[in-house]
Amino acid sequence: MSADSDPTCVAIACQGGGSHTAFTAGVLDRLLSDPALEREIDIVGFSGTSGGAVCALLAWYGREHPDHEPEDLLADYWADLAAEGPIDRAANSAIRWSSQLGRMGVPLPDVSPYHSPAAYWGKREFLDLLERHVDFEAIPQLLDGTEPALLISAIDVLTGEFELFRENDLSPEAILASAAIPYAFKAVEVDGSYYWDGLFSKNPPVKDFVTNRETPDPDEIWVVKINPEARDRVPKSADGIADRRNELSGNKSLNAEINFVEPVSYTHL
């Protein structure tokens, strides 16, 4: 791009995928810390779902807050999320083993998150971690009408309708709503409605950058994709089958979003 050219308006959409979205943090770190790229593009929006919603939030907040940098926030958040203490490691091992036993057909008790102390502990840990890195009370002071849009997706448990939380109504609960896996968390209440993981809805929001009149139209939408589209062979192990099932379900809504946005260029990162 020549020095006289206008920068390309770009929206960045972050697919959800649990702990795999640590990859998304690395991609955003690389994009947002490149001075040459920063001169060539104008980021007009971020969107995300589940773990991608967390990454999109941290990138957006780090760009807008004068005392933070997005790459530092992303690195610090994922470092804090790592299981370092014995309790965290024991919890991770228990979850992994129970998941593997279930895939092997070993009967395990089904425990509702409404009756599980672990679900309460997980919710508290998630919210505490978010609030250590993002001052949600300071966000209204950052909004002056020139900031990029931020779109966080969740689904209303009762109505089945998609919900987009915007930068002007962010809260820790709104981010948790996008990440609340039904078997691990209670439905998250936000303003009297109840939400589950955004993987059921828009993973991530893409077409809203084009259809929403309140957001600037991007020249390009860059999708940070976690789940591969294709595999070389049919999975045969229980773990491989479960992984591929998750990949296909995670890509279903993304592909629908992309197919809708035919006039807009998009790039898989």
Beta percentage is: 15-25%
What structural category do the secondary elements indicate? Answer: alpha/beta
Per DSSP, the total helix count is: 10
SSE order, one letter for each helix or strand: EHHEHHHHHEEHEEHEHE
The figure for the number of domains is 1
Uncertain residue ranges = none
The level of helicity is 40-55%
Please give the alpha-carbon distance between the first and last residues.
20 Å
Mean pLDDT figure = 83
- What does the radius of gyration come to? 19 Å
Q: What profile does the largest beta sheet have?
A: 8 strands, mixed
By DSSP, the count of extended strands is: 8
Question: How would you describe the shape?
Answer: globular
Draw up the topology in text.
Elements: E1 8-14, H1 22-32, H2 35-40, E2 41-48, H3 51-64, H4 70-81, H5 86-103, H6 117-133, H7 139-142, E3 149-156, E4 162-165, H8 172-179, E5 188-190, E6 193-196, H9 208-211, E7 220-224, H10 238-260, E8 265-268
Parallel strand pairs: 1-2, 1-7, 2-3, 7-8
Antiparallel strand pairs: 3-4, 3-6, 5-6
